[in-house]
Design a protein that fits this description.
It is a single chain. The protein is an all-alpha fold. It has one domain. Helix content is about 55%, strand content about 0%.
């Protein structure tokens, strides 16, 4: 029968595995095409993905909802 230390170690390993798998599951942003990825129509610099913080937050919220619904 495992003791309390063994159970704690197992829980710590499981927590670490779950955290690492979630980090690897975060999708990468597509390359910039000079337009805001939130499709607001704003032109942006080639090194950027969004025209403002609000568009970035909106895009991330929509992507998270799509992942939860299984449509992404």
């Amino acid at each position: 029968m495992p003791d309390l230390g063994d159970l704690a170690e197992g829980l710590a390993e499981l927590t670490l595995e779950c955290t690492l798998s979630r980090l690897h599951a975060i999708p990468k942003l597509p390359g910039s095409n000079g337009k805001c990825l939130n499709e607001c129509g704003e032109s942006i610099a080639p090194s950027q993905h969004f025209c403002c913080v609000e568009c970035r937050d909106d895009f991330e919220r929509i992507q998270a909802a799509k992942r939860r619904n299984g449509t992404l």
